[in-house]
Every structure is written in structure tokens, then in C-alpha cells.
Amino acid sequence: MTLPRLGILTLASFTLAACGGEAENTEPPVVEEPIAQVERVPLTEDDLFGLEMSDLDVEIPWTTNVVSRQANPVAPRSMIEAVELSSHEGFDRAQFTFSSDAPAAGYDIRLVDSGSAVTCGSSGSAEDSTVAVAEQIPDLEGTRLLVVLFKPARVEERGRTTLPIGTEMYDHERIQEAGVTCTVDQTVTWVAGLVAGDELRVLQMRSPQRLVIDVR
After folding, report:
1. How confident is the model at residue 161 (pLDDT cuts 50, 70, 90)?
2. Residue of 34, 75, 111, 194 with fewest CB within 10 Å of its CB?
3. DSSP summary character for residue 57
4. According to the model, what pLDDT value does residue 41 have?
5. 1 lies in a domain?
6. Residue 151 pLDDT > 80, yes or no?
7. How much is the pLDDT for 5?
8. CB–CB of 123/131 below 8 Å?
């Protein structure tokens, strides 16, 4: 499991419901309504845990809302090279690393109750109305689920698989079980079973491209 510095974007840098300022080839992350008031507290060394502040592109402070970012419709599929789970004082972390030959994938991140149906795939484009949205109810350890959809993304190419389909057990403070549950319609669905946690924080990193999701 060095790009030029673009500057750090915080939640205050864009409008949550209507994005202000476009990143090249992507739309900025948005937090779906209803919007809970979010107060940004500057990151500390304890928050970073080995991450370099100079590599931080976007920070979404702690929130209970859905966080999402759409990739450019013609962007190539990103390869998810690895995911690393870790436990720290006050939160657990999932760090996804992408290959350098394509932009980081768009994403949809949400916390839902265990037993909730999780989307596998997407509805497709207007030109391709044959792609159906499938749903599944993941049977994972825990009382809540952290659900992450990446698109366009992949975990297999030319016989090389970076993340297998299936889940593994973990002994972290909050994350008990996690893994890829399906890959359909250029969408990779990754789910974690949580025994605690109702807030998430999202950090977009570069050099290499990474998506960091913290849960507390």
C-alpha cells in the first residue's frame, strides 16, 4: 500500500451549496444540504500525523454532512493504488493513494446507519441510459457505515489488482471492518463498519495524490 503548490482551500474558500471558483478539470468539493454550521480549527501536528502541510490542497473541517466532489466528465479513470487505515487519539483515518497518470477521482463520502442500502455504480450519462443503479446492504461489523464512492476510478488494470473485492477485519478504535464492496460503471465503492463516529473530516493531498478521511 511535486506538483506546484496550488494553495490550501478551506471550507470558507467556497460556497457549500453553490461552488465558487473552479479547479482545473474538476469541481470543488461540496457539502450537501442540510448544511450544519462548521467552524474550522487550524490543523496541528497531531492532526497531520506524518502528512505535510505543504501538500494539503483542500481541507473540509469536521462535519456530519455528505461531502462530494465531481470529476470532469471526460477525466480518465484514476487507479486507487492503496488504502491505509490507522487509529489516532480522537479519530481513525483512511488514506487513499491514487496513481500519478490521471487526476484524483471524484468522490461521495457519507456516514449512514448500519443496515442502510448502499449504491453500487451510478446512473450513467445521458448518452448511456442502460446503466442501472444497484443497491446492496453491506453486512459489516459495527453500528454505522462510512461509505465512499470514487468515480471515475478502478482497482484493476491489465491483470494487476490493487485492492481486492471484499472486506477485512481491523482492531481500530472506530473502524472494525472495511474494504471494496463493488466496482461497477467506473465506480469503486468502499465501505467501513464503525463502532463509533458521527463526524468526518476530509483532506485532499498531493505529491502523491491522496484522499484522507478522518472519522471521530
Report:
1. very high
2. 34
3. E
4. 84
5. no
6. yes
7. 39
8. yes
pLDDT score for 180: 97
Residue 198 has a pLDDT of: 96
Secondary structure class of 12 (helix, strand, coil) = helix
Indicate if the pLDDT at residue 207 is higher than 80.
yes
Bridge partners (DSSP) listed for residue 58: 9, 204
Task: Provide the residue count of the chain.
Answer: 216
The DSSP 8-state label assigned to residue 186 in this structure reads T
Structural domains of the chain, count: 1
> Per DSSP, what are the bridge partners of residue 112?
145
The CATH number of whichever domain residue 43 belongs to comes to 2.60.40.3500
Numbers of helices and strands, H then E, in the chain: 1, 17
In a domain, 5, yes or no: no
Do 182 and 165 contact (CB within 8 A), yes or no?
yes
